[in-house]
Amino acid sequence: MRRTCELPTKPRGPAVLATGLGGWGDLSAAARSPQPVAARTRSGGGRNRRRSGLRLDRMEKLKELLHRSENRICADCGAPDPKWASANIGVFICVKCSGVHRSLGTHISKVLSVTLDKWADNEVDSMIEIGGNSQANAIYEAFLPEGYQKPHPDSSQEEREKFIRSKYELQEFLKPSLRIVSHQSSDSGKHAGSSKSEIGMIEFIGILNVKVIGGTNLAIRDMSSSDPYVVLTLGQQKAQTSVIKGNLNPVWNEELKLSVPREYGPLKLQVFDHDMVFKDDLMGEAEIDLQTTINAAAAFGDPGLLGDMQIGRWLKSEDNALVRDSAVVVASGKVKQGMALKLQHTESGELELELEWIPLNM
Questions:
Q1: Which domain holds residue 28?
Q2: Which of 58, 103, 179, 265 sits at a 20 to 30 Å CA gap from 204?
Q3: 299 within some domain
Q4: Distance CA 336, CA 358 (A)
């Protein structure tokens, strides 16, 4: 039976609350009406008072939510007295964690100050409906591994970023078949550059573990070397390796995890040179067709019942980036596929990977 999970959200509304939890700004839009003053007082004043009362009531409820004991500490690191919130996720967070949330993009986490920013009605409603840190963490940390150490208030930025991206962007601590996906779409009724977030449900058929082994003869992007890292993209999911400084033949041996939806496309791979000042430079890219692996695994059934054997092969051609044919095998009850890829749109470089496919319907 298909199972889904969805955080409650409300559709966006045009009304905006002013000054967060700190008070109200000018609500005098009616004063610019061409109606006579007396008529405005009779017809518009009552409506404005009612609207103001509703907004104040929302903010009072948000204050009550903030003052609950579980919301007096950051949802991600436990720092006391958080002054920021992710309005669409429904958690209160500290200033250090808010910076990481902001880097995820508003389609994943829309960060607002609870004292300084303007809150839209639907953003307040969403926070209230979700219920705060305990309820949101019950979803996003439902499958946190036993003994896993969450960040603490004094954790480094790297530790903080790794955990927050794993929790909200990659959703590693949700049950694999219950992923929550945020779609960023343009709102044609707004000015250019605006967007709205929609949280939808999507069915996943498996987990793809990608072991990024290493690179060979990568392109130079600095004076005489590069600081490479690898980014994998599947649909709206992204995962990346660490940066290896000053090395054109880096060895990562890092495993990255992605969820594969029923409707999937190619796995996109990019190698970048990390730059402390300017935009990171592209060092090459490639695409991986997952159909060979997934179809072969489906045809042979439960790999745990099979001996070590080859079950498929992705053939090198002019239409792909393979250096040589890539075999899909069953090894120790696991479906794996090793491959070497020649990076495209660059002067040189190859990358070695190993895929492991874990279907969810076994």
A1: 16-169
A2: 103
A3: yes
A4: 9
> Structurally, how many domains does the chain consist of?
2
Helices (H), ranges, the chain: 37-39, 45-66, 95-103, 121-130, 133-140, 157-164, 291-300
63 & 137 share domain: yes
Are 297 and 359 spatial neighbours (Cβ–Cβ below 8 Å)? yes
Q: Which residue has tokens 């996003």?
A: 140
Nearest to 240 by CA among 225, 251, 261, 254: 254
Q: Report if residue 71 sits inside a domain.
A: yes
Are residues 136 and 58 both part of a single domain? yes
pLDDT tens series, the chain, 362 aa: 434 444 443 333 333 333 333 332 332 333 333 333 333 334 445 555 555 555 567 778 888 888 898 999 999 999 999 999 999 999 999 999 998 998 888 888 999 988 878 888 888 888 888 889 998 998 899 889 888 999 999 999 899 999 999 999 888 888 655 565 554 443 333 333 333 333 344 667 888 999 999 999 999 999 999 999 999 999 878 889 999 999 999 999 999 988 888 889 999 999 999 998 889 999 999 999 999 999 999 999 999 899 999 999 999 999 999 999 999 999 999 999 999 999 999 999 999 999 999 887 65
Whichever domain contains 55, its CATH number is 1.10.220.150
Asked if the structure places residue 347 within a domain, the reply is yes
211 and 272 housed in the same domain: yes
